[in-house]
Please model this.
Amino acid sequence: MRERVIFAFVTLLVVFPNATARSQSRTETGFLDRTVVLNGTTYRYQIFVPASYTPTERWPVILFLHGAGERGSDGYLQTQVGLPSAIRQNPARFPAIAVFPQATKDSSWTGTLAQVAVMALDQTTREYQTDPSRVYLTGLSMGGNGTWYVAYRNPKRFAAVAPICSWISPEFWKIDPVVPADSGERYSALARQLRQVPIWIFHGEVDPVVTVDESRKAFAALQAAGASVQYSEVPGTGHDSWDPAYNSPKFWTWLFAQRRSQ
Model:
């Protein structure tokens, strides 16, 4: 009888360490907290990792830039509007890793905060198995302006960009301009810089916050430059053109089909 008891104890020692190793090897999924440090300052951001994630395959990555109303330092508010909300409603539609940096109060997605956003993206691509040919950029309102800003400075980084209710004119908001002042006419310069990047622009027809002319002019310039660009002006819609955009299966089919040539 004593021999049987000893044998059972030894068996438990063998089995439980293996079970612990298996549990530790599982990748955490869902919305996860992360931080990045720039010039001694820590910035919070979140990522979304799909439940089906496995490191045995490469995953597309989406960088999302929020609007002015979600600025702060809690690392959470930026996940309540736009793309993160769409993911929560229908996670199966998003077989991708998403990155959600947060701009600090009274800032914009220019200068330092644009650098923080790209750092969060870079950190995510190092942490997970991602596909460098399928990195996408999108944002709404202030984040739409940031989408143009970041894309203009990284024209070979993204497989596609999707600015929503965005603007380019520096007169709209006195922040670092999307197109540097010495680059000539701003819309033509934007088109020259991004003509090789697939772009889908969204804007509400009756947007009272950001005039729809901003997107119309960008679309016209990109078309004239021979860019691969689409424009959806949502009829009867005000500033919230992001929900129709991010809830469109057609848009996501298009986005995930885009690949940057290596």
Notes: The longest helix spans residues 2-25. Residues 62 and 136 are 5 Å apart (CA to CA).
